[in-house]
Design brief:
Elements lengths: L1 H16 L9 H6 L3 H57 L29 E4 L5 E6 L12 E6 L4 E6 L1
Antiparallel strand pairs: 1-2, 2-3, 3-4
Protein name: Type II secretion system protein GspG C-terminal domain-containing protein
InterPro entries: Pilin-like (IPR045584)
Keywords: Membrane, Transmembrane, Transmembrane helix
Length: about 160
Amino acid sequence: MIGEWITDILELFLDFSFWGNKKDTPAHEKKLYVSKKSKNSSVARVYIIGCIIILSAVLLFFFLLKPMQQVSDTKDTLQTITHLLKLEKEHANQYPETIDGIARRNPTLGDLSIDSWNNAIFYQKAENGESYTLISKGKDGVLHTDDDIVIHKNFEQGFTTIQTK
């Protein structure tokens, strides 16, 4: 398929380079009633349609699939933070005051204090120290709006909830 495209592009280039040449139409084209002009316009149409399809696919990715991937990546980040907070609780018998240093022992995790939209992740430890709340501010970067991704951890009840509003 790619080889055919390359061949078509080369043929189109050769046709363009010989357009200035005013030679007569070859006999085989006269016999088939195919002019160079109609042949070239057909090939050009195919390439224009191909470009439109490729452009549409790129736009689909950026406007539909990328936001969905950002939500998924942020949920994964919040789950990683939840796991690290659990390990910190088991090790130190309390949750840390901030999440800034929990990934310092494993640099491959990257910066866990920001979400996929480069907004700081909100972390709040409960006063009793037995639960916490993690919130990604979402695309708009504003806390407590409809696009927030929220994790509540309550060890008294033994569950984790993830909410996307």
